[in-house]
Amino acid sequence: MSTWSDALHFAPLSLTSSDSLPTLALVDLADWALVTLVGDDKKSYLQGQVTCDVVSLSPEQSTLGAHCDAKGKMRTIFRLFHHQQGYGLFQRQSVMATQLPELKKYAVFSKVDIEPSEDVLLGLCGEQAQARIDSLFTGDSDVRQQDNATAVKIDDQRWLIAVAPQQAEALAQTLAADAQLSTSALWDLYDIRAALPRIDASTELEHVPQALNLQAVDGISFKKGCYVGQETVARAKYRGTNKRAMFIMQGDAAQCPQAGDAIERSVGENWRKGGTVIAGYQFADQQAIALVVLPNDLDDDTQFRLADAPESRWTVQALPYSLDDE
């Protein structure tokens, strides 16, 4: 087992809902995993499996995408980028045991090797993250590769780093010299505020891509050829069959909302299940924030609460992007 982090102490940060985020934080992404694809047929094979356009992805870019079943329900949402001699898929660790065998199912007929990576996954967050990456990785693109490491820009304040285990300790020590150390809970907070979707084991095969706003974050190509689940995804767009969307919600919580938890909505004087938590973050002041899938036609005055906390009240927050079709 890798001991790269033995000398470092990654702990949850104590942040209230009104606190500013650290100017630089190094995050141990232990709840995440990386899948690699290498081989002559890696591009064509993956193109026929996922929602994003693999063929048009340049080495300087990354993209979100989803891997669905034949009914269009998502097994995972991932970030795809060129990594070493192939592709890397950055996704939740909790889906690996079920999703990876499905991705590999037909690989025996193609020249492609699909395996879980041993790379250490680190996140660099904060307003100083860009400058820190610039000092360590050459180039000016959103994906930067050097020997045994790839850095991927997530947004203006976040970078993902996938580094080989033998180089991980030295790199982590260098980054930790002027950064706060955090567990992946901080990464969750960034994802929630950016409304970036994910799939965990508890939400696997529950939703079509549009229910988690994947079309709004450029994770679906409607111009590429066929892929697994494509008919359902296209029907959701062109026939309007999808009736759900993902929203940012905030409210009272004594503990962190977990993926799969239920949100209830008011219906007259009664309460009924209204939505499902996708990801949550607990602040230090008994407030929490979460990504929640809800019906996309709810009245503005609908009240919400956590199903496990009837006294709580939750409100929908503004999304950082539009859900309107172009």
UniProtKB/TrEMBL annotation:
Keywords: Cytoplasm, Folate-binding, tRNA processing. Folate binds at residues 32, 187. It is found in: Cytoplasm. GO terms for cellular component: cytoplasm. One of its GO terms (molecular function) is folic acid binding. Its main location: cytoplasm. It comes from the Bacteria. GO terms for biological process: iron-sulfur cluster assembly; RNA modification; tRNA processing. Residues 242-308 form the tRNA-modifying protein YgfZ-like beta-barrel domain. Belongs to the tRNA-modifying YgfZ family. NCBIfam families: PRK09559.1, ygfZ_signature. Folate-binding protein involved in regulating the level of ATP-DnaA and in the modification of some tRNAs. It is probably a key factor in regulatory networks that act via tRNA modification, such as initiation of chromosomal replication. HAMAP family: tRNA_modifying_YgfZ. This is tRNA-modifying protein YgfZ.
